[in-house]
Amino acid sequence: MKISVLGRNARWLDALALLAVSATLWFAFGWQLLVKELPCPLCLLQRVAFIMVGIGLLMNLRFGNRPLHQGIVVLSALAGVVASARQVLLHIAPGDPGFGSPFLGLHFYTWALLIFLALLVYCGLMLMSDAAGSDTAPRKLTPLARYAALVFLAILVVNVVSTTLECGLGPCPDNPTRYQWLP
Amino acid sequence: MIMMLPFVTSLLSAWFAWRGRRDASIGWWFVTLAIYIAWCFYHMTSSLNISL
After folding, report:
1. Is B10 within 8 Å of A48 when comparing Cβ atoms?
2. pLDDT in tens, A107-120
3. In which domain, by residue range, is A100 found?
């Protein structure tokens, strides 16, 4: 397979990547509601990093594939690697139960680290495909891109509300057990 | 430290991208990144109980 195939399919690949990022955020929020485990500050920072990655992908969909947008994805994913790797190291000692319940044998921050690394690989491959142009005018979204963007915007609003209810207008405790703005 | 602040600024960035305003979107993404770095210093500067 020639690498330029990726470039020719960049629009729907970026839409799928944005859907994957949104699905990660929706899954974390669903877990928060169903298992009743509130996200810690480092977990919330990882969510912010996923959102920043999503913004770069959304820009690719809206304005075309540009190195600046890929740079946003790379820096955002690196920010996520910092937060998730820090949390992995916090709980790496033998006998440490980790934070929260594991999913398929791994804690959420370990999954986050793997997903951020996968996003970096994806971004590297897209840059290698040399698909970037120079036009930055807004373009009409395809139905799949429009759906991905709406799903992404929805989970952003949900996260703003959820984090405000959990932390209020201040810092979050290291091990949150209740929503500060809910009785 | 306002934990929900980067969520608000990232929402603004995504909203401007959706509305086709690229420069505003990039500007709010940088604001989010700056807050993210500040929050990392707040939460990640204690020493780890491991040898590196």
Report:
1. yes
2. 999 999 999 999 99
3. 4-167
Asked whether the beta carbons of residue A41 and residue B44 sit closer than 8 angstroms, the reply is: no
In a domain, A173, yes or no: no
Residue A98 DSSP code: -
Token pair, residue A137, equals: 């005018």
The residues, ordered by sequence, that sit 6+ positions from A145 with a Cβ below 8 Å of its Cβ are A11, A12, A14, A15, A18, A61
Residues 1-52, chain B, touching A (beta carbon < 8 A): 1-4, 6-8, 10-11, 13-15, 17-18, 20, 22, 25-26, 29, 32-33, 36-37, 39-40, 42-44, 48-50
Q: Do A160 and B48 touch (CB under 8 A)?
A: no
State whether B50 and A92 contact (CB < 8 Å).
yes
Q: Closest Cα of chain A to B28: distance in Å? A: 10
| ipTM confidence score | 0.94
With respect to residue B49, please indicate whether it lies within any of the assigned structural domains.
Answer: no
CATH number, domain at A138?
Answer: 1.20.1550.10
Measured CA to CA, the distance from residue A107 to residue A109 in angstroms comes to 6
Q: Structural domain tally of chain B?
A: 1
pLDDT tens digit sequence for A45-79: 999 999 999 999 999 999 999 999 999 999 999 99
